[in-house]
Amino acid sequence: MERHAANLLQVYSVMIRQKLLSTFLLSLVILPGPAVAQDTIRINGSNTLGDRIVPVLVEGWMKKFGYGQVTIARPKTGLKIVSAKRDTDSVEIEILGKGSRPGFQDLVNGDTEIAMMSRPLSAKEIDDGWQLGNLNSPDQEHVIALQAITPIVHPGNQIAGLDLSQLTKIISGEITDWKQLGGKPGKIRLHMARQGTGLAEMQATILNSSAAAPNSQRHRDSNEIRMAIAADPNAIGIAEFSTSAGAFKALPIRVANRLVPADQLHIKTEEYPLTRRLYFYTGQIVTALGRGFVTYAESEEAQRLLASHGYLSLAPMLTPVTQEKNLPAEYKQWVDGASRMSLSFRFGNAFSIFDSRGAQDLARLKDFMQRPENRNRKVILIGHADKQSSIYMANSVSNEYADLVATSLMEIGISPMRVRGVGYSLPLTFTNNAVYRNRRVDVWLR
User: Domains of the chain, with CATH numbers?
Assistant: First the structure.
């Protein structure tokens, strides 16, 4: 682990050369002279993406490029065909929701150009798709949006928060009374999603469990769950995160001995643990039409479109320092008077300095800093490390992570005013197989 940052530095120059080479090879694919126009894109996979998010992105993409007469056909369950015309040209997008695993298999078999995934690829899937290229590289793995679920309770409930173990025991029926959690005595009434719904799939995936207490009440969607919670002081429900106010309280989750709020900042930075990424995966060779759609889906315009429809977008936002609690004294001093950005850089593998979202966020940060209102702002970077052999080594590694991000920012014209590491003082997990979550760099603006 102690060599992780050093290894990233060693691959940095190699990665830059690989990036330039792949850009050149891509230009050979999409730039040559006349060819038969590609007017159909097939997008298969996750029902969550296919049912709601991708149709919004497709319509936005079509309108951006001047297509009109947009129609949506539903010839069979799970399939949407979005068609549009522009002068003599027409385009057709087939969106087939069939599940993440079958969608990826379609990509391997050549039956779809883009696979929709509500989770990252497994190691086995990456091996199975070896012929498609480096599937977990930023060129082929694209984070499109975020989703989160939150435990919600009646506003009168005095519970400050839960840890994941307590939440799991409530769902399984091992904890049945609020007094077991230090609250006012009363039977816990659990509200979950009805089986077969998208929310039930999200609950099972994010919580890594499909079990629920036999007496839990089942609902069609998050709105029904919120209404039930508002009417019952002893109720708890698991609902999709919403920015809308209501007669419910979203509980913080205790992570590594500190409470992480269920708010946009901590969900967008992925510190809130009940958060997941939604992905597109492609092969190395993508049509110009398919590449254009994926690029649009990652863009600021598309992300703001998703936000306008109530989804958790990746568009950057600033949050005042007052919303960050329980920071180490040193950290507080370094960011005094600054606002935190809703992104944290995480690191990739031998194919990339950053993971797929980090590579996208680098471009988003550049665009954000070029806005007139931000041109005089200064960037502060705070690095974090996973557990090391000593405090000194953890501080050293966290400083190296911050330095890596600073180097990348300087290459795009951004010179950070402060670059510091805080070691292992704010871990996000103690789980050995998820220590990559601890290796991150926070971004602040003053």
Answer: 1-36+316-446 (3.30.1330.60), 37-140+282-308 (3.40.190.10), 148-255 (3.40.190.10)
